[in-house]
Amino acid sequence: MTAASLPRLLAPEDFARHLDDAGVLVVDLSQRRVYDEAHVPGAVWLDFKRTQAGTPPAPGALPDEAALSALLSSLGLTADTHVVACDDEGGGWAGRFLWLLEMVGHTKWSYLDGGIHAWMAAGLPLEQRANTPEPSRYVARITGDEAVDKTYIRARIHAADFAVWDARSRDEYHGVRVLAARGGHIPGAVNLDWVDCMDRNRQLRLKDLEALRATLADLGVTPDKDIVTHCQTHHRSGLTWLVGKLLGFPRIRAYPGSWSEWGNDESLPVESLP
Fold first, then answer.
1. Domain assignment present for 23
2. pLDDT of the residue at 78
3. Within a domain: residue 93?
4. What is the per-residue pLDDT for 5?
5. What is the CATH number of the domain that holds 42?
6. For residue 273, is it within any domain?
7. Whole domain around residue 65: which residue ranges?
8. Active centre residues (catalytic)
9. Mind spelling out the 3-state secondary structure of the chain?
10. Residue 64 maps to a domain
């Protein structure tokens, strides 16, 4: 196995044999204190806040091209780099970063299954020294078709070949827990909480992909449909977007505005518990 042949879903035990492969960049989106305590050897730390624009009403929107160019250059990214992303929470921020890469047309990536928790549980080498990459001159152009906006969703809500996967908690989905002006969900959306994609008994590795495929099919989220996933700010849905990509869904995209935008826009329809 070489960098060019690394699978999208990468088991820690498999990746350990390729730590020193040329052209591989490990990007760790864990909390800084976790990274400082222990990380995959050679991993560079990325503050996950830099993956979002951070401005209301849609803080989860993608940063502009200038900010993306600065971010990716600071990591030393080149067109030939194969990125292996990981985090300390089961894949939300790692998935968000991989979505960001897809948005700028960088498709050479893998997700380190289970992140630092699975890596440590496997007894693999650890490092405490922070790594500072040699900056590159990466010019980011937003070319990917991995995002939709609220106008697109509203126009397609009732289409038979359209599905919205809400990655928030059940309480948020039903409007019991309200984190915007209005609670509830996008009409017709189905709910599978992002944490239900992780196996807590296996250090937050993803659950069996075929089992997840069956669960999603029961909810009406199938590969023949145009699928949009979201959460509150397109952080948790970074993982659900990633799951869809790993399942080979040809039309899975994210709504970066997410509920922070939809729930605060009085012109948009909402469903909730009566």
1. yes
2. 97
3. yes
4. 82
5. 3.40.250.10
6. no
7. 3-121
8. 231
9. CCHHHCCCEECHHHHHHHCCCCCEEEEECCCHHHHHHCECCCCEECCHHHHCCCCCCCCCCCCCHHHHHHHHHHCCCCCCCEEEEECCCCCHHHHHHHHHHHHCCCCCEEEECCHHHHHHHCCCCCECCCCCCCCCCCCCCCCCCCECCHHHHHHHCCCCCEEEEECCCHHHHHCCCCCCCCCCECCCCEECCHHHHEEHHHCCEECCHHHHHHHHHHCCCCCCCEEEEECCCCCHHHHHHHHHHHCCCCCEEECCCHHHHHCCCCCCCCECCC
10. yes
- Both tokens of 122, joined, read 């496997």
Question: Hey, what are 182's tokens?
Answer: 């209005």
Tell me which residues of the chain have a pLDDT lower than 50.
1
Q: At what angle do helices 236-246 and 209-218 cross, to 10 degrees?
A: 100
The number of residues in the chain equals: 274
